[in-house]
Design brief:
By secondary structure, this protein is an alpha+beta fold. Helix 1 packs antiparallel against helix 4, helix 3 crosses helix 10 and helix 8 crosses helix 9. About 2% of the residues have low confidence. Keywords: Carboxypeptidase, Cell membrane, Cell shape, Cell wall biogenesis/degradation, Glycosyltransferase, Hydrolase, Membrane, Multifunctional enzyme, Peptidoglycan synthesis, Protease, Transferase, Transmembrane, Transmembrane helix.
């Protein structure tokens, strides 16, 4: 009954709107032409329909579909004529004859729908539906309905009929966040729209009239019944023969629903974060944020978020360096080594030549909404900081060789008196042995000889996010800084490949759907260590793995080197190292501890950090 009353109201409304329309035309004609009057107030701009964006791996394969809605825009000439005719016959039989409004169609729809007790024919023209879906809202108000009339009038003046039909077929809703015929074809049948059979075309054409009622996944029979009704209409209008209609009806419809692609969440969550940073840098938001505070800063951040959403909705391709095989290995290594344990972990793998991030693990059993420890977890680095802050700066500034002698006996400076991990003293040792065995007192002596500020001047080149002048104190030489992320540490150790540092990135480029580059990083390599220092550090890092604290990470390789790290109370276990091809960092520990002295000492001999690293890199 409510449906019938609604149609009665619409029937009464349309003549009223038309009378209002012509009355306004007559009045406006006294001062200016009515067309000009409407054109001034309703501007039909070129339409860029929101589309789905996607993220691809290093091989160009899509692994994530981003943003709403799920729409793939297809040119009108690529949409089969049969499918177009299905929509014209069911939604707007006089589409090519009217000027946007068809009052007769409203009356006809009322009569047909009243007899069938279902919505068999639509009351709005295709043009009106375009106006509603693109320029207006779905609100059921008198103001919106009148606006729809005027917009339809202007659309008909501005666009050709085929353009209007093409827009319509790209905007209509097919349930499950699917918009447009191409997306519908790919979602329900995993085929391009021009490869659907006529029976399949009629099936998807049945959905938009009432997407909830004709939901193929949950109400298949309803959809099939309406599909057959549409084929009967096509036969009645002599577009197909009755025999063809029966043939199409008898074709078995088998859904092949394609789930939304959303793989490798450890990596993709970082890509989304990096994408925002790329837009910020490329469009100057980062400079605006430098000195902004309070409400001004909030306003800039909101503009940045809006801009990011706008770009994602335009249909872009974010091309990344993800290596699916290494990613699977990285995630699998973390999950398998720590299976059954309450200990967590994170890992980051970077290609030595490209400086691209090829794999990330955000944590054991990581899910998309989880805290991503690989780039969000800041922890003290322990002794993994020594090559970067103590040894390499000392060699760089002094020219010392790997056999340079330094004391590994007790050390005390004012109130700071660190001890070696074993609580033993070792006398004079070479710096190679000191790093191999991770003697704390030797490391702090080298750090102090170089000088705190000078040592930190090298660390600053790595663009660590949380380093500040407040960290410039002796304990920093042994990792007493809070903190560093797994990704940051892996990036810093790439400087031991050739002495340079380039900030590692996941995103290689951002293009439109036609392949045109829109955004790309323009990072340049920074020289950190001389070739001589790099050579010596590589020799010393190899000794750590073969003869020192990193033995459990060792395997046969043309080159392998790295450094272990352990923080107070064994709260964190690190291993950062490199081979000829890749550099990787692994952190293990717990997100929270119940007491200040609690740690994971019980895991120390098992060395999960080294085992994970070896499994990834081997």
């Amino acid at each position: 009954m409510r449906t019938v009353l609604g149609y009665v109201f619409i029937i009464l409304l349309i003549p009223l709107s038309v009378l209002t329309f012509y009355y306004a035309d007559a009045e406006a004609g006294k001062v200016q032409n009515f067309d000009d009057y409407v054109e001034e107030r309703i501007v039909i701009n070129e339409v860029d329909l929101p589309q789905a964006s996607k993220i691809t791996d290093t091989n160009g394969n899509v692994y994530v579909e981003l943003h709403q809605p799920n729409r793939i825009v297809v040119e009108g000439d690529k949409i089969p004529a049969f499918l177009k005719e299905l929509f014209i016959q069911s939604e707007d039989q006089h589409f090519y004859e009217h000027s946007g409004i068809d009052a007769a169609a409203v009356i006809r729809a009322f009569m047909v729908n009243a007899q069938s007790d279902e919505i068999e024919q639509g009351a709005s023209t295709i043009t009106q539906q375009v106006a509603r879906n693109i320029y207006l809202t779905q609100d059921r108000t008198l103001a919106r309905k009148i606006a729809e009339v005027f917009y339809s009038y202007q659309i008909e003046k501005t666009l050709e009929k085929d353009e209007i039909l093409g827009l319509y077929l790209n905007v209509i809703f097919f349930n499950h966040n699917v918009y447009g015929v191409e997306s519908a074809a790919q979602y329900y049948f995993q085929k391009p729209v021009d490869q659907l059979s006529k029976a399949q075309m009629a099936f998807i054409a049945a959905i938009p009239n009432n997407p909830s009622l004709y939901d193929p996944e949950n109400r298949f029979e309803n959809t099939k019944t309406r599909q057959e009704r549409l084929l009967d209409i096509m036969a009645r209008e002599e577009i197909i023969t009755p025999e063809e209609a029966e043939q199409f009806k008898s074709e078995t419809i088998t859904l092949k629903v394609r789930p939304r692609l959303d793989r490798y969440p450890d990596y993709s969550t970082y890509v989304v974060s990096e994408f925002k940073e790329l837009i910020s840098v490329s469009e100057g938001f980062d400079q605006q944020l430098l000195n902004a505070e309070g409400d001004a800063r909030t306003a800039i951040e909101e503009k940045l978020d809006t801009r990011v959403a706008e770009i994602l909705s335009s249909g872009i391709v974010i091309n990344t360096a993800l290596d699916p095989a290494i990613q699977a290995k990285t995630v699998g290594s973390v999950n398998n080594v720590l299976a059954g344990s309450s200990v967590q972990a994170s890992a980051a793998v970077i290609g030595n030549q490209s400086h691209d991030i090829v794999a990330l693990s955000g944590g054991k059993g990581f899910q998309k909404t989880d805290f991503n420890r690989a780039f969000q977890g800041y922890r003290q680095p322990g002794s993994t900081i020594k090559p970067l802050l103590d040894y390499a700066p000392f060699i760089e500034t002094s020219g010392a060789g790997v056999n340079y002698l330094v004391s590994a006996d007790k050390y005390c400076d004012s109130t700071y008196c660190p001890k070696n991990y074993s609580k033993q003293e070792y006398g004079m040792v070479t710096i190679k042995e000191a790093l191999t065995k991770s003697y704390n007192t030797a490391a702090i002596r080298l750090f102090m000889r170089t000088g705190i500020e000078r040592s930190f001047s090298y660390l600053e080149k790595f663009d660590f996010n949380r380093i500040s002048e407040e960290d410039y104190f002796p304990a920093a030489s042994l990792g007493g800084i809070d903190g560093f992320t797994t990704l940051e540490m892996a990036g810093a150790y790439t400087s031991f490949v050739d002495g340079t540092f380039t900030k590692p990135r996941a995103i290689k480029s951002v293009t439109d759907l036609q392949g045109k580059t829109l955004y790309a990083w323009e990072d340049k390599a920074v020289r950190v260590w001389s070739a001589n220092t790099t050579y010596k550090m590589r020799e010393m890092l190899t000794s750590v793995v073969k003869n020192g604290t990193g033995k459990k990470a060792n395997f046969s390789a043309p080159y392998i080197g790295g450094k272990t790290g352990t923080t107070n109370f064994v709260r964190d276990l690190w291993f950062v190292g490199l081979t000829e091809g890749y550099t990787a960092a692994v952190w293990t520990g717990k997100d929270r501890y119940e007491t200040e002295t609690e740690g994971i000492r019980y895991m120390e001999k098992y060395a999960p950090h080294q085992l994970i690293w070896r499994r990834i890199m081997q």
